[in-house]
Amino acid sequence: MSTRAPLRFVLVGHFALVPLAAVVLCAVLAPRPARGQVSIGYRGHIASDARFSLPGLLEKPDTGSHPRFLRNETEGRVRFDLRAGRHVRALADTTLIFTGRQDAGVMSDFSIPEKVDPFRIRSEALYVRFQDLGFEGLDLTLGRLVVPWGTGDMFNPTRALNSLDLYDPIRFGASVANQMVLLDWAPGWAVFGEKRTIFDELMFQVALVPVFRGAILPESGLTAFTDPQYARGRFHSELMAGLFDLQGAFIRQGGDLSYDVQVAQPDVHLRNMQVGARVGFNLLGVDLAFSYYRGFDGIPQPEAVYAEDVTLPEIRLGGGTELLELIEGICPEGTPCLQESLVHNRIRLVYPRIQMVGVDMATSLEFLWGAGLWAEVALVFHDDLNLQVRESDAIVDLGGGPTVLPVGRTRHAVEVSGDVFVKAVVGMDYTITPWWYVNVQYLHGFVDEFGRAHLNDYLVAGSDFQFLSDRILLRLFTIFCLQDQSTVLYPQLTGRPWGGMELTLGGLIYLGQTDTVFGSPLTGPSMIFLRAQMNF
User: Fold this and answer.
1) Beta strands in 20-169 (DSSP E)
2) Cβ(109)–Cβ(123) under 8 Å?
3) How much of the chain exceeds pLDDT 70, in percent?
């Protein structure tokens, strides 16, 4: 029996624990703050958010009836920053959100306040940081936090330590805070030239994440695995194309489908611990960083589909031995006869194991009047993503009671071939006048795309216009898919009539056919939103 894999994980764990042991020793020896030195800073906001879907020409099929309220929430967010001397810092950033809806269904639910007036808590950060442990520039952070790797604006393919929070499209670019141990070291080394700094801002970073947390998915995400018409965009093998044809024929004959979608979390084990490392520095005015991550992709991918047996009212054995032929020929021409038939499908999703090597840069182009330039590239390594599919057998009555016709099969396929693929973003921004800002980015590979053969290209562009001494902000942004010409429009008008007060009217509008990236029901309906916020 080979011992390479277990030995490799033991060595990785041992290697990771050695520097931590040294840091703990430094923490013990570090000077203690005097009592009464704790200072507290805080900031936050209270906001109300109302959204409704758009009917008519902007209405998407299979996204519910429109117009309707999509969201009616009120939230309070507060961020506490506590410091005990110069060596100890703690941060707590939490949002309490009341959903504005009722989850009560049966009579007994109306005696449960959490169902009558449901709420949720979102934790942005909750950690303790020890600074300058033993010597200047060495920091240790333990707790729940987001590590902002990358230089792209909202699109960061190298930000692998934290999965994405895709629940709210208006908060696009947000990440899920993760429990981790983070070690930062800024030695302060620098090389100075006669006229400019050659090298400085060196930073080393190592992170250990014991428990993996996947992305928070939007409510429309379930459609990707429960509607044959739209699920084709999430499955790639010919095997699944055949199953979708079979399910489509079953629906046309009056049958119905139900789904149970399960997501398998990686075991809490040393072999599944995520490890990340990054080194960054400034070289001749260019911020550069190189990163490495070993763990999992945050978007789950299909691993198994199990279609349970289907009961058919009657059968004509001359229709063929393939299940598709059987379904297509079972009903008289033009008369659906399977209204009482149901096929239950069990789907299992897993998070692909990956390794990522990344590089990012950012600088200011003085010869272009200070325009900003950034680029971020991630090389993602992964093995084959295998898929197992079990088709239904038919249960029929041939006169002697229920009989199982073994017309279904269990087959295997490679859903995504093991390979290396590249996700990248390149962008520029420039403030043309004090009131006009522009931002343009090219993106290869959207946040939920996985696999070398399944990445699209996008153009992200927009402008901010400030009026009346920054009291009025007009924001116009768009995302355009170069392959299928589908588009997202994001207009927003914000007024700040008084200090700390913001009133925003905006929209998130999807344009494209239902088989395109943004026109698909998988992205949810187009919407208008109104948000009032007070900052403190």
Assistant:
1) 38-53, 69-84, 88-98, 119-130, 138-145
2) no
3) 91
Distance between CA 377 and CA 156 in Å, rounded? 9
Choose among 234, 521, 446: nearest CA to 349. Answer: 234
- What gap in Å lies between CA 278 and CA 207, rounded to an integer? 9
The structure tokens listed for 228 are: 């044959």
Classify each residue of 441-472 as buried b or exposed e, where b means 16 or more C-beta atoms within 10 Å of its C-beta. Answer: bbbbbbbbbbbeeebbebebebebebeeeeee
Task: For 453-503, write each residue's pLDDT tens digit.
Answer: 999 999 999 999 999 999 999 999 999 999 999 999 999 999 999 989 999
Measured at the CA of 264, the angle between CA 262 and CA 268, to 5 degrees, comes to 150
Residue with tokens 């290209």: 457
| Cα 443 to Cα 424: distance, rounded to the nearest angstrom | 6
Which tokens go with 112? Answer: 């449960």
Is residue 89 a contact partner of residue 83, using CB atoms and an 8 Å limit? yes
Q: Side chain identity at 332, as an amino acid letter? A: P
What type of residue is 374?
W
The amino acid occupying position 315 is: I
C-alpha pair distances (Å), 122 with each of 44, 144, 176: 14, 12, 9
d(CA 205, CA 352): 25
Residue 302 near residue 415, CB atoms below 8 Å: yes
Query: Rounded distance, CA 530 to CA 368, Å?
Result: 38
CB atoms inside a 10 Å sphere around CB 100: 16
Q: What is the mean pLDDT of residues 251-277?
A: 94
Assigned token pair, 98: 């009341």
Please provide the average confidence, as pLDDT, over all residues in the chain. 89
- What is the C-alpha separation between 394 and 59, in angstroms, rounded? 39
* Residue type (1 letter), 495: G
8 A C-beta contact, residue 425 and residue 155: yes
Separation in Å, CA 174 to CA 90, 148, 372, 388, 447: 21, 10, 22, 33, 12
Distance CA 217, CA 165 (A): 7
**Which element (helix H / strand E) includes 308?**
none
pLDDT (tens digit per residue) in 104-160: 888 888 888 888 999 999 999 999 999 999 889 999 999 999 999 999 999 999 999
267's tokens: 């075991």
Which 8-state DSSP code applies to residue 99? -
Q: How far apart are CA 447 and CA 34, in angstroms?
A: 47
Provide the greatest CA pair distance for the chain. 97
Q: Using an 8 Å Cβ cutoff, are 386 and 413 in contact? A: yes
